[in-house]
Amino acid sequence: MNRYRKTFRSCVGAAVLAALSVPAVSISSPALAADSSAAQMQQVVAALRGITTMTADFAQSDRNGSVVTGKLTLQRPGRIRFQYEPSVHMLIVGDGKALTLIDYDVNQVSRWPIGNSPLGAILDPKRDVSKLGVIRPTGNPNVISVEVRDSSHPEYGVITLIFTKDASAPGGLELSYWVALDAQNQRTTIRLTNQRYGVAIPSNAFKWNDPRVKAGHR
User: Which stretches in the chain have pLDDT values below 70?
Assistant: First the structure.
């Protein structure tokens, strides 16, 4: 398995908490901290629910500093497409039920339920972020960090979502990036730029060509 495939799998496979590069801040009153966290969680839920469709450019990096770029297309619930740069012959597509990784170099297709991935925090309407998530201090009033994990299914992993306040984004928060660290200690970061919301998505955006058909087996 080459390093690109390892990176892609760490993005959507089982993950544990990613170390963030934002400083913690102490709040003297537990009551104030709880009130603030509850308000921020409501903002996060509103922001995620407010996304119907989104497109963005993304840069995906791993712990070793390897970076690949591409185009993200999102349609909630459940649909997502990571179209990687031409030099990377892979594709990740979520069709509403499952995530599919297509490796065109080796004509291999891998699928797993959306709910079994950290990306379920973004895509799966059955995953309640307000119940599974915890607000983490960032030290920046314009940045909200939420760590999402299902304690009853640790194998599903953890994803840390970073939002930046932006009045033009759904719920007043823009999803800026997320971070995951898998059980093999491989960290993956997806940073988004040029986010556009409520855009028209082509009907074939979440379809893909099966390389096994050309190879003569499925």
Answer: 1-35, 156, 181-186, 214-218
Question: Which tokens go with 69?
Answer: 């770029």
Separation of alpha carbons 40 and 32, rounded Å: 12
Q: What pTM value is reported for the model?
A: 0.78
Q: Per-residue pLDDT tens for 142-198?
A: 999 998 877 777 776 778 999 999 999 999 999 999 987 665 666 789 999 999 999
Nearest in space to 27 (alpha carbons), one of 15, 35, 39: 35
Looking at residue 131, what is its pLDDT?
A: 81
> Who contacts 122 (Cβ-Cβ below 8 Å, separation ≥6)?
48, 74, 76, 80, 159, 161, 175, 178
Domain total in the chain? 1
One-letter amino acid for residue 192 of the chain: L
Domain that holds residue 41: 3-196
Bridge partners of 210, per DSSP, are none
**φ, ψ (nearest 5 deg) of residue 95:** -105, 10
Separation CA 102–CA 83 (nearest Å): 11
Tell me which residue has tokens 């799998």.
9
The DSSP H or E segment spanning 168 is none
Is residue 83 within 8 Å of 91, Cβ to Cβ? Answer: yes
Which residues contact residue 130 at a Cβ distance below 8 angstroms, ignoring those fewer than 6 apart? Answer: 41, 42, 44, 45
Find the distance separating the first CA and the last CA of the chain, reported in whole Å.
Answer: 20
Amino acid at site 197: Y
**Which CATH number belongs to the domain containing residue 80 in this structure?**
2.50.20.10
Structure tokens at 70: 């591409």
